[in-house]
Amino acid sequence: MFFHYGHRGAGCGPRQGTWRRGPFEVHWEVSGRGDGRQRRRRMFDGDELRLILLALIGDAPRHGYDLIREIEERTGGAYVPSPGVVYPTLTMLADMGQIEERESEGAKKLYGITAEGEAHLKDNIEQVALLMGRLAELGNMRERTDGGPIRRAMGNLKTVLRDRVMRDEVSTDTLHEVAAIIDEAAQRIERL
User: Fold this and answer.
1) Residue 170 to residue 181: CA distance in whole angstroms
2) Alpha helices, DSSP H only, in 76-114?
3) Of the ranges 7-11, 134-138, 143-147, which one carries the lowest mean pLDDT score?
4) Would you state the torsion angle of the CA atoms of residues 37, 138, 158, 5, taken in this order, to the nearest 10 degrees?
5) Is there a contact between 138 and 79 (Cβ–Cβ < 8 Å)?
6) What are phi and psi of 136, to 5 degrees?
7) Quick one: which of 70, 88, 89, 91 has its CA closest to 79?
8) Pair 76, 138: CB distance under 8 Å
9) Could you tell me if 163 and 176 are in contact, meaning their C-beta atoms sit under 8 angstroms apart?
10) Among 68, 75, 59, 38, CA closest to 118
11) Which of 46, 134, 42, 51 is nearest to 99 (CA)?
12) What is the pLDDT of residues 20-65, one digit of tens each?
């Protein structure tokens, strides 16, 4: 199974899980906000995102927006870092001396890697390879799960449920039968 989900017990702290596929893992955590809603942890922690951005800038000088779009493209849209995370990270990388502003046309800041940044990438080459692999695997997973036959079948289910279940004259027994059919389908898919 691709997803693993575990928690410490009802109401006893954050829920955590790991998505595993081959040698790659994506860790996530959902924690309570105190108002009944839940908040998901970022896909990549700060150090990981710094390495990803540094590696992408190491490939070619880039603007912040270019970095966001490159990550979105590599993951097939499964992960798009927010500007509120990317731009402060770029500022931090510049403060650390790993990237620097380059000449650019227009108002956008173009960043290029420094010798210190290249050395940092070289020191962390294995972790960079794993992080880039995670980006690619997110894209592959998105491509597989966003496929036509599944999307078509889910659309059919949505249409049938809307047409059949949302009628005023639907009995409670019918609703329970529909729920049982969906539950059985979920169990069969899980056993594949």
Assistant:
1) 16
2) 83-95
3) 7-11
4) -50
5) yes
6) -65, -40
7) 70
8) yes
9) no
10) 59
11) 51
12) 434 444 444 333 445 544 444 457 877 899 999 999 999 999 999 9
